[in-house]
Task: structure prediction
Amino acid sequence: MANHKSAEKRIRQTERRTEVNRARVSRIRSFVKKVESAIEAGDKAVAAEAFKSAQPEMMRGVSKGVLHQNTVSRKLSRLSARIKAL
Result:
C-alpha cells in the first residue's frame, strides 16, 4: 500500500486512466465487430460504411496510446482486404 501522498495520487490517477483506456478499447472492438459482421453477411456497402467509421476510432486509439500504430495498421489493412474481396 502507498505510504506517500504522491503515491496515493498516482494510484487514483492510474485507476481513472485504466477505466478510460478500457472503455476506449471496448469501443474500438465494437466498431471492428460491426465491420466483421457486415463482411460475414456479405454486404460490401454496409461493410465499407462501417469500415469508414471504424478507421478514425482505431487511429484515435493510437493517438491516445491504448493501441500500437503497427497493430492498428495491420488490422485496418486486413479488414480492407476482406472488404475488397467481397
User: Anything to note?
Assistant: The chain is about 85% helix and 0% strand. The chain has one domain: 5-85. The mean pLDDT is 96. Residues 5-41 form the longest helix (37 residues).
